[in-house]
From TrEMBL:
Residues 1-58 form the HTH tetR-type domain. Residues 21-40 bind DNA. The keyword DNA-binding applies. One of its GO terms (molecular function) is DNA binding. Keywords: DNA-binding. This is TetR family transcriptional regulator.
Length: 187
């Protein structure tokens, strides 16, 4: 039921913005407000649950990729960059702007997750450079390019208008960053 509530919460945000009420959410779910309150005490609790679950999900998937001995170092880097957590549709610029205004504490947590230096990825890239599998370019610059590139998917309206899924966009962004725009046979 909690997952269903979180999904409905995101749907409500997409349709009506952050200012909807718990009554609106209960109606969307077809349950009583009392039933809703049995699972969450307030909207902010649902928001916290979505954020926490998304972060935990992303970390769990990242750890599995890193531990997978069947993947090459470059495949691990590509995999870590393209991890899409559960509730990825929540990570939209319009939602984040509203969250910044109405729920600054929660926004700060999301912003940190999106913009901080992703340590696991940094370690993989450093290892790839040391093993001469990547060019020896400043790791902080590489990290900035990757973080900025992947965070461009937060502009979900652009991708929807251009009929590109977020997953496809992430894969293309990573391929451009890792392999460039020039086909290998033309280099």
């Amino acid at each position: 039921m909690k997952h269903r509530i979180m999904t409905a919460f995101i749907e409500e945000i997409h349709l009506n913005g952050m200012k909807f009420t718990m009554d609106d959410l209960a109606k969307r779910l077809g349950i009583s407000k009392r039933t809703l309150y049995e699972h969450f005490d307030a909207k902010v609790d649902i928001l916290d649950a979505i954020i926490d679950q998304s972060i935990a999900d992303r970390n769990e998937i990242t750890d599995r990729i890193i531990q997978d001995e069947n993947l090459t170092l470059i495949e691990k880097i590509r995999g870590v960059i393209t991890v899409l957590p559960i509730h990825w549709e929540f990570y939209d610029l319009r939602i984040l702007d509203q969250m910044k205004r109405y729920y600054p504490q929660q926004w700060s947590k999301v912003d940190t997750e999106l913009t901080d230096d992703w340590n696991a990825l940094r370690l993989l890239i450093t290892e790839a450079i040391e093993q001469k599998e990547m060019l020896d370019i400043n790791v902080s610059l590489i990290m900035k390019l990757i973080i900025d590139g992947t965070n461009s998917t937060l502009d979900q309206r652009f991708y929807q208008e251009n009929q590109i899924t977020v997953s496809e966009a992430l894969l293309s962004i990573v391929d451009i960053l890792l392999y460039g725009l020039i086909p290998e046979n033309k280099r």
